[in-house]
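Students often ask why we bother encoding 3D structure as a string. The short answer is that it lets us treat folding as translation between two languages. Here is a chain of 216 residues written in the first language.
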Amino acid sequence: MKSRMIAGALALALMSPLAGAKPIAFAKGKTVMAELGAGTMNEFQAFYAPTYWFSTGVGWTELSSADGNRHRTFTYVRANLLAHRWNLPGAQANVFVWGGLGRATANELASPELAREAGAQFDFETRRVYVSAKADLFESDHLSHRIDTLQLGWAPYAHDYDTLATWFVVQGRTYTGDIQAGVEKALLVRFFKGGTWVEAGATTEGHLQAMVMFNF
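And here it is in the second language, the structure alphabet:
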């Protein structure tokens, strides 16, 4: 029994960096991610992790208001820290925090401004259930935007690292700074195998949302 528990924990440790989007995949690993966010947010990030608990890299985030009157971009360099990890029999949980500096532009700004970016993420997963809560803050002297994202995922079958995984994900997201009112709700299907991840779906208003991610 003990050996099966250990084997299950090891399998989850191999699988878990890919069950949900994380800023650190594994030691000596690289992560590249691009997201198309329902006409509201587009994002690109690339990180390198010299250890399993720290990574650093660059990012670009674009926000557009629902009425088309506001358009912001944030380009930044940031560091990510695995603040705590719980390895449980058949489950794992993580707390990540991050922060960085960069440049902000907006259609109503005369020139770019120094930008600050900070955030945190908590996630919990088994081989069949996934929960993630994330908050991301982008600020400059004249701009302030926070993006809060909650994801609940379910896998119809357990998978291994080298087999195709399928997840059905319900997502809720809110934006501050007059980008969008209310909660943006989306239904997503997530596939991954090894270090490759593809996710696609739509919001309840019919807008496409998609993400690709590579860990290598």
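Translate back mentally: Confidence is low (pLDDT under 50) at residues 1-17. Keep this in mind for the problem set.
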